[in-house]
Amino acid sequence: MVFVHGIGGLRNPARELTAWTRALAAGMREAGHSATARDLVSEDSGRHVFVHYADLFGRGQAQGGDAPGVAGGVGAEAEILSDLLVAWVDGLAAEHSDERVRKILDHARAEAEPRAQEQGSLAVVRRALNVATTLLALKPWGAAARWITPKVMVSHLGQVARYLARAEPDARGIGLDRRIRARVAEAIGDGPAVVVAHSLGSVVALETLHQLSTPVPLFVTLGSPIATRTVVWPRLLPQPPSVPESAGEWLNFWDRDDIIAVRPHLERELRPSGGGVAPTSRRVDSDGTWVHDAGKYLAQPAVAGPVAQALAGTAGGPGSGGGSG
After folding, report:
1. Distance CA 298, CA 304 (A)
2. For residue 321, what pLDDT band results from cuts at 50, 70 and 90?
3. How deeply is 48 buried, as exposed, middle or buried, from its count of CB atoms within 10 A (0-12, 13-18, 19+)?
4. Which residue from 10, 70, 130, 277 has the least number of CB within 10 angstroms?
5. What string of DSSP letters covers 12-25?
6. In this structure, what are the phi and psi dihedrals at residue 34, rounded to the nearest 5 degrees?
7. Inter-residue long-range contacts of 104-108, CB under 8 Å, 24+ positions, other chains counted
8. Which pLDDT tens digit goes with each residue over 73-98?
9. 173 torsion bin: left (phi>0), alpha (psi -120 to 50), beta (else)
10. Phi and psi at residue 323, to the nearest 5°
């Protein structure tokens, strides 16, 4: 199994792998797959990998300034971040009908709109900070400010913009997005592999799978921004967006209170594969304030159950021959 993380700062891959597998195992046990859960967390299983790429977003990888969320301080990244703000608020508004919430979202939408007199990426970042401040003061996301500040949120959204800008070449001329996908491709290898991707990682994994022929019995996306129609969608590779031919099944999970997973119904948007595989989107409901957390998704029985079944049916995978209890 291959885990692909999303937006956020540097991680310790070993600790993250332990945390993700434990969260998933907890969900498996609740879903009735205790034997697969035991295999998943066993120290000698060695069959699952946590792909870490957050270090590639380090400022040493980019040329130019240090505006939060924008790599070089100018150019495509700032433009994408600007568009992402509008799409972000529009997506949230589409999923919420409460009148009070909508009024605040209308205010955030006005803040998100580019201004004719706006000059440079710092103006975009200031606008982004205003939008994030407004949204993080709104229920159900208000209490999340204890874990994520508007500045951190904008920086994390900026990672999406930087990936989609297809820029920041290294000394070999290889862009940031290609370097990230190369890590995922290396982890998947010859497979077969169950791929579980969170947040921005779902975009990375989708594009990577289109480049590989490795069999993927189950592709799971959590809190995905793939269907952000005016920003992510038209910049996905390849176009038009479709299900990778290697995917045997694609399950997409979203939480209504997930501030990142806007327009979550992927089956309405993506073309099915040649074999007729289309995404299936399922809503989950987590407790707490910051529900975008990967661990909260993984611990959901609705998420963990299908993963356990896929692992049990994958040759050499955890749980094969062991059944579930």
Report:
1. 6
2. very low
3. buried
4. 10
5. -HHHHHHHHHHHHH
6. -70, -35
7. 104/134, 104/137, 104/138, 105/135, 105/138, 107/134, 108/134, 108/135
8. 446 777 777 777 777 677 767 666 67
9. left
10. 70, -165
